[in-house]
Design brief:
single chain, alpha+beta, eight-stranded antiparallel sheet
């Protein structure tokens, strides 16, 4: 049965998902939101796999501190095969080499293993086989709007006919755009592997990790790095589409796009580890968002190439994850009105004014662009919207949206002061105070003794926990502490926290949203309940996949993972909570 026990490989251009037996479940080309040419995750026919005759066991691990994946297959007879998968990424000729390429090396480790190689990519959403054309040492796979080349030193006749053969030497398979290699496949594959391992280990070495939970944090950071489309700086919310939030829910969404809010949290988490390059990439993306919108409406989500139109379609050519339909491409959320986005843009850019490590810190031109966005935030802070959870038929003045509009004004005040614009700082401070008073008046529920999810409402919403994350309150704030207590009572089930428990467009949610569990962990820690926070955090860590990854949702009673994968929100939570709960290096060393 298909599951989310998947390894991720990627390089900032493309990414693939591989199951525990070394079979590709998902790969989109020519970029992370492109056409799925390997689509078994959603029941499609696009496959890339290596089957070991009489396989008995399979194990999987990453090469330490890298995005290079090793799958080991063992047969009944004791034969052993290693499958090495990666997308090349390293520095060459003064730039980062991250081509639209992926590599598979299959290495015999013992006995005389017999393997069958199956490589049958599909024509994207049509799920029809690609046209193949054989060459001397390569095969071209073509479709109307996509093509790539497989170059290999494996017997092509055996691959084309899916004939089992004895693996008496390592074989190398390199997938590239329709271009020839500069050297023999073995030489290229080994060179790229060594340089890719070196790149990731050097990148990981520079992370400012907490003392505790280092393995979890490093894996989360590498995973987030693979969700950045570096050509533009856009950051996808997840690498998949249509993995449902729970069984039969029809909450099957396409997450292969750049949500402004998700991207902000990703940048913030990596900044906490002193990885500032993502901020530099993302700042370029935000500059283009600001230029395109020029103080007007900002969508909550864009394509990684800044595409504004993400028209949502139902795909009927694939049965879906575990047979759960629908399969969707595109996302209607691009058409939504979500006012928190203005705050997320300003929050995402604010550090760039202060951080002297950046090659090009933000300056006056960026401030003027952000002021236009701040004006929009102040204008819309008390207007109804679809909210952070993107309700499709429900509009309210959502507390989290007003909160982020406050954050926009608050950060603009600080940036203005830093740049020496005292009068502007005063004006933004006054606007932030207006929004603060409105939130404190309109969002507080006397009945629930908590901040509600919407102005004048009584339904609880875990997104209000972000009040402490963005500095609206501190850990001593009495109302916030009561809100944490109320969420603990009403939204927490066992060791997981729901977004909300009331019915939405699709009924009542049946799984907890893992990011909300992390927000609750952080709130517990920052209000002095560190031991409770630690126990909850370690429960979530124990329910990651074997490779240390998390999806969007979790069944509280069992810890089973559902939802798109890997979810950046969730991986961000690992980093944020670990840094808050860890002992300091000075206290231990």
């Amino acid at each position: 049965m298909t599951s989310l026990e998947l390894g991720i490989i990627g390089n900032g251009s493309i990414a693939g998902l591989i199951d525990g037996e070394g079979a590709y479940q998902w790969m989109c080309l020519p970029r992370v939101d492109g056409q799925p040419v390997l689509n078994a995750l959603l029941g499609g026919d696009g496959e890339l796999r290596c089957d070991l005759h009489n396989m008995k066991t399979a194990s999987q691990e990453y090469v330490r501190n890298t995005a290079v994946l090793r799958t080991t297959l063992t047969s009944e007879e004791g034969c052993e095969v290693d499958i090495i998968d990666f997308c090349p990424r390293f520095n060459a000729k003064g730039r980062t080499f991250r081509p639209m390429s992926f590599v598979r090396r299959i290495i015999p480790r013992g006995g005389n293993p017999r393997v069958t190689l199956k490589i049958t990519p599909s024509r994207g959403w049509s799920n029809e086989p690609m046209t193949t054309k054989r060459g001397t040492s390569h095969v071209r796979f073509t479709a109307e709007d996509n093509s790539f080349r497989m170059t290999t030193d494996a017997p092509i006749s055996y691959i084309m006919s899916e004939t089992q053969f004895t693996l008496d030497r390592p074989v190398n398979i390199i997938f590239t755009p329709d271009e020839s290699l500069s050297d023999a496949p073995e030489q290229v594959a080994r060179d790229w592997e060594e340089r890719t391992v070196d790149y990731w280990q050097e990148w990981s070495r520079r992370l400012a990790v907490p003392f505790d939970y280092q393995e979890a944090v490093i894996r989360a950071a590498i995973t987030l790095k693979m969700c950045v489309f570096e050509e533009t700086g856009g950051i996808v919310a997840a690498l998949t589409t249509s993995v449902p939030e729970h069984q039969g829910s029809e909450r099957n969404w396409d997450y292969r796009f750049c949500w402004i809010r998700d991207a902000y949290f990703t940048v913030t988490a990596l900044n906490r580890l002193s990885s500032v390059s993502t901020l530099e990439y993302y700042l370029r993306y935000l500059r283009n968002v600001a230029a395109h919108t020029d103080g007007g409406h900002i969508q909550p989500v864009y394509g990684v190439g800044l595409e504004a139109t993400l028209e949502e379609h139902i795909v009927d050519t694939m049965p879906g994850y575990r047979g759960h339909q629908p399969v969707r491409r595109g996302n209607q959320a691009a058409e939504h009105v979500q006012h928190d986005v203005y705050g997320q843009v300003v929050l995402g850019a604010a550090q760039a004014f202060f951080d002297q490590r950046l090659r090009a810190p933000a300056g006056e031109v960026d401030f003027l662009a952000l002021e236009k966005i701040g004006e929009r935030a102040f204008e819309m802070h008390d207007q109804p919207d679809a909210g952070i959870w993107e309700y499709r038929t429900i509009a309210s003045v959502h507390t989290s949206s007003a909160l982020m509009c406050w954050a926009a004004c608050d950060r603009l005040c600080k940036v203005a002061g830093f740049l020496g614009h005292d009068q502007k700082a005063k004006r933004w401070r006054e606007r932030a105070e207006i929004i603060r008073k409105k939130i404190e008046t309109e969002a507080w529920s006397e009945k629930k003794q908590a901040y509600a999810g919407a102005f004048g409402g009584e339904d609880l919403d875990a997104s209000v926990l972000l009040m402490i994350e963005v500095g609206f309150v501190d850990g001593e704030d009495e109302r916030f502490r009561k809100t944490v207590d109320a969420i603990d009572r009403e939204l927490r089930v066992d060791n997981a926290v729901y977004r909300y428990r009331h019915a939405d467009d699709f009924g009542k949610p049946e799984t907890a949203f893992t990011a909300c569990t992390f927000w609750h962990i952080d709130a517990l820690a920052m209000t002095g309940r560190r031991e409770e926070a630690r126990k909850l955090f370690e429960y979530v860590l124990a329910h990651r996949t074997k490779l240390g990854l998390l999806s969007e949702d979790m069944v509280p009673e069992t810890g089973e993972l559902w939802g798109n994968f890997p979810q950046t929100y969730s991986m961000v939570g690992i980093i944020n909570s670990a840094t808050r709960l860890s002992r300091s290096w000075a206290s231990v060393c």
